[in-house]
């Protein structure tokens, strides 16, 4: 049993900006203290940095006081070294993560961004059976899969001979794209827990400058810009209403929030516990009606995979020159 809001650790791995490990430790301790007792990390987050920060905290706590999830499959920033879904690497990765975390087991071991695998067949025939062996060894309690495209998650669930206990998907339980709702009955019918991530759509629903790598199509970006401008005109913080929107969606087992700022953590917890004001709710309803419902849950599909494949080809070509 986990709370509706839990703690994602991409931020403390310096994925979004340079971070200070001392503050990250304080933020993580405060999150656990406030009851966000499921923690989600990955080797990809800072090439193990996130797991190392957690390794300074978790071994000192009673093991029953928290749940910890990590991942396999995505590792290094170099394109030719980024992904490896082979069984051998999976087994090795789990041991590396447990060493960094200072723990004997994790609660959920997840396949990270499986849409980037050379083929779904590898996930079905190699990656997931390797995770089943990890589970049988006692190094993980449950098996999960993560991806952006919801249809790929469904395909893997339908084809897998290994019991999948959890799915994690991102940017689909947000104001601009709430298509996760349409898929909940499928996952629930298979007895799968659902983890919702990146509720601010990787920066689309914040007042920060959008990173140039963002895969969203111009239509989505422009619509979000109009919604942000509308909020500013009405003196409302779009991040608050976007956070509240996602946290109050029915049927989702838990929603990750990720931050390396103690102040931002407290703001998220405040929204989680106290909700938003009547004015904020009215503005939320307005921007959904004016801007986001007409988007009809537009996604960026396989744009990230296509971008990765192009970069990988360039990297391989350069290495051969």
TrEMBL record:
A Pfam family of this chain: Aldo_ket_red
GO cellular-component term (any): cytosol
InterPro entries: AKR, LGALDH-like, NAD(P)_OxRdtase_dom_sf, NADP_OxRdtase_dom
Gene name in the database record: Tmem43-001
UniProt superkingdom: Eukaryota
Name used for this protein in its record: L-galactose dehydrogenase
Ranges of residues in domain NADP-dependent oxidoreductase: 4-280
Any one Gene Ontology molecular-function term assigned to this protein's record: L-galactose dehydrogenase activity
